[in-house]
Amino acid sequence: MRITNKIMQMNNLSNINANKVNEDRLSNQMSTEKKINRPSDDPVVAIRALRLRSNVTEVTQYYSKNIPDAESWINVTQDALNNLTQVLTNLISQCNKGSNNYLESEDREIILEQMRSLADEIYATGDADYAGRYVFTGYRTDTSLSFDKETEQLFSIVEQLDTSAIDDVTKVFTDKLLDLNASNYMEDGMNVTDQEISAVNCHRIRLAYNDCVGDAGAAPSIRFQQKVTGADGKVTYEEVTWEGADITLMHSYEDPYSLAANNDDAVVFVPETGEILLGENKYQQLMAVKDDAGTVANEGEIQVGYQKSHWQKGDLRPQHYFACVSDPGTEDEIRYNDSYLTENEEHQFIEYDVGFNQTIRVNSTADECFQHGIGREVDDLITAMQNVEDLEGIKTTLTQLAAEAEGDEEKAARIQQQMDAVDKALTLARDKEQKLFESGITAFQGYLDDANLCITNCGNRGSKLELIENRMKTQKTTFETLKSTNEDIDIAEVTIQLKSAGMVYEAALLAAGKVMQATLLDYI
Questions:
Q1: Could you say which of 72, 107, 440, 493 is the most buried, measured as most Cβ atoms within 10 Å of its Cβ?
Q2: Low-confidence residues of the chain, pLDDT below 50?
């Protein structure tokens, strides 16, 4: 076969071009520092690169965004809970002081002022937010825990209670003592004697709110499961409902406490104080309500439905705690937490993805730490202290009047009669106050335990998150190393190859130039 100059020319050009392509490939690798520039360069490397890049992106999302966000949320929650524990600790301290039988009026005023300040701080702490999202309100992160201003909005609320919500209340009747002053103490209508001063005890359910709707027909409903044992010994449960005529609606000025104390079958609703007062028979009936551990349902639950429309600044929003309906019966009606009334209660836990197929809860809900009972307990204590303060003020006034009435037997006798009544009322009021402070110590300690449990849970989540963060950091480094090994070139190796390719290319050009100078005539 004859090799012509044309064939030699084409072969040289092909080889020179191949060398140039190789040099260009190496030059691109040097400029991009990547092994391939398109999938067709190396499909295996390309597929592996896609997978590793996806892993790196996911780990980066966890490590650089989700985990820091979760840490910040937990830290804000812990700070708020720490503040709550300080408030509760101070409340316990005030209760210890208030339980002293020998409090002076000045001491009582200091305690009263302290408790009012602490009461204002309790729920303000619950409005803590992170990046504009409220941390204690479950999924409703755009809605504050408490009302930020006085509001008129009707809510139908269903509280789910048990027998622990039933306690005793003492009512001290002072007749017209608190209306006594220097100008009316001699009037016939102010002729108060110690026989007219008394106190009654009765059982009650203290609702989460006071100042409830107290219009005619607005009495609450009470539902519970009553245990029934058949003739065959089989135990069943039947639902009992008290509503309508079963419940007497009475205002606080109508003496509902005496009715409940003297009528064993009474169920009295006091809307101003948010109390349901129980006669002895009704009390025993509710106290018999117990959960059956052998069933899925909660037979120990007592459901109390009622309405409230007027909200003060600082009142807790009911949608964060209860199954309720806002603006019921209107086109603006909104239902909240219906699942609370079923066996499939939905918990509003906020969880972050912090690892491959791994989530962590970051929030604590308001019902775990900011219970209504804290504020209601403070309200009772403040009311009791204020009653004692008012009676002590009346006693001071009567003491001054007695000094001025020396020589006037009629005035002195009237003042002494009223003084005896005030002394009896003070004895009863101070006894009530002391008992409330003693029970307040136990109650606030329980709320403090709940808050400490929430802090512990937050700390556990934080510790777990720290372990996950360390693992994600290691995984991020590992995946980035694998990604670099798969995609990135070895600079030294490619530099040598590029220099070699350049030399080969130049040598090919030189050789081609030498060979192509010879023709057939040179051999004839």
A1: 440
A2: none
